[in-house]
Amino acid sequence: MDVTLDTEQDTLAFGARIAAVLRPGDVLTLVGDLGAGKTTLARGLIQSRLGDIDVPSPTYTLVQTYDWGEVELWHCDLYRMEAPDDALELGLLDAMGEEIVLLEWPDRLGALLPDDALSIDIAFDGEGRTVTLKGFEGRNV
Ligand SMILES: Nc1ncnc2c1ncn2[C@@H]1O[C@H](COP(=O)(O)OP(=O)(O)OP(=O)(O)O)[C@@H](O)[C@H]1O
Ligand SMILES: [Mg+2]
What we know:
Number of domains: 1
Mean pLDDT: 97
Radius of gyration: 14 Å
Largest sheet: 7 strands, mixed
Number of helices: 4
Structural class: alpha/beta
Distance between the termini: 10 Å
Bound molecules: adenosine-5'-triphosphate, magnesium ion
């Protein structure tokens, strides 16, 4: 499924649509070049449930966690993670499959990335963006 997002507001609103279909244990990869809108989408997703809170990019912390009802939501930016094994130290391997985990730069995990991860690819498209979803079959996005 492809969706066109013309503005930042559209990306935030699309994040809210994704929030509504996520389940505990989901791993969602957010893929796209620098500045594509991965953090913006995550921000819309998180704020749709938690209100107008600050959702910083986890550029340096690598992980930010949020209360998500019965589980936590982990927002991760792995750009600066040097080796896949560092995910162990972050607790990310335990979180995946239990909590809801959003991953920017999921390629840093190498073979540790679960096969059944949902994915959203964000591509620059003129002034806006096009997103491509994979793995959302049976979910009413
Ligand atoms: N649909 C859209 N159309 C136009 N601009 C957008 C759209 N969605 C987001 N943007 C803008 O694009 C930029 C995206 O920044 P953001 O930090 O979300 O990117 P990122 O993919 O997380 O980058 P990084 O790889 O550095 O983490 C922001 O300036 C935002 O306003
Ligand atoms: Mg980002």
